């Protein structure tokens, strides 16, 4: 589930009160408030509830291609990259969106996009537009990727953000799949509140496998979907480039999905109850969480149990989206960086030390920070933005 049920920003601000309210309701459902899932299991005699139920988020990192070549092209063309990009995007928005089979947009004789592209054709740049392949299966080593510019500019180009997956999916026993927009709460399930939809899929095609080390017959669709998702989160799938579509990229009405049954990576996630798989899952999530935490100081975070710790861990390092221009400018003068960028003081060895850190990340799986602000009595204090009416809407 998403770490924050909204877009990035300062969770301490008044404008984030609604977000904090939703987060408080989530935490009260999971591990706080006296009647949560975890607390109820403990009261019922389950000594280690995390053997049976766990909560996770997804997070990614990348490197923005702001190499030295871009500045040279901007000066030669008299057009900023952002202006050229905006013109290109606006042209596609007039149609049905991106289609890899469309003829590429080239722009008119006087368009900013064409001027930028003509200048760019005079320059060679080996810098990758995305380096996400580095944390996927058989990906390149982070230290080997080219960069045109100073080490300081490369360090500033690394960014991280939560992955906000809004589709809901439940896979039960590798047999049944429920997928759609319906949430696992009364708003969605009662049928008289939110307008939601979900499809139940029961594929009769059998697959011989194991469950808990014992022979088991699973459904081909359910088990391949579950294994594919697990491998994606663990970095056990090859990188999929959007400009090189394959059968799993195109709609199922055009190509049937393909799955590599019996491959080494498939066997690692075959049995979700196997002790070796559970160790792989927990170890990957823990390591990713620690490395992301060090490099980018994302919140929510288990290092932050009070608002004072929030200020020390987050506020003193970042200029957040939507901040007043004067306040943002003052923040930059103090050495702050845009939220999502690297906390420089964590890496006295510079970008080489950062790459050593990020090279340990595999996939996108991170632990949900269940201790975030746990020592704060009320994450969202009732007021104008949160009252009996809005509380009813949130729940």
Structure overview:
The chain has helices spanning 17-30, 37-43, 68-77, 81-93, 112-120, 151-157, 186-189, 220-234, 264-268, 275-296, 307-315, 325-333, 351-358, 388-394, and strands at 56-63, 158-162, 168-172, 176-180, 198-201, 206-211, 214-219, 318-319, 337-338, 365-367. It is an alpha+beta fold and 395 residues long. The strands form four sheets. The chain has a three-stranded antiparallel β-sheet. A three-stranded antiparallel β-sheet has the order 3-4-5, covered by helices on one side. Strands 6-7 form a two-stranded antiparallel sheet. Strand 6 and strand 7 (214-219) form a beta hairpin. The longest helix is centred in the C-terminal third of the chain and has 22 residues, at 275-296. The two termini are 17 Å apart.
The neighbouring-strand order within the major sheet is 2-1-10
Overall pLDDT level: 90
Relative helix content: 25-40%
Task: Tally the beta strands.
Answer: 10
Describe this protein with a few key phrases.
single chain, 395 residues, alpha+beta, 3-stranded antiparallel sheet, globular
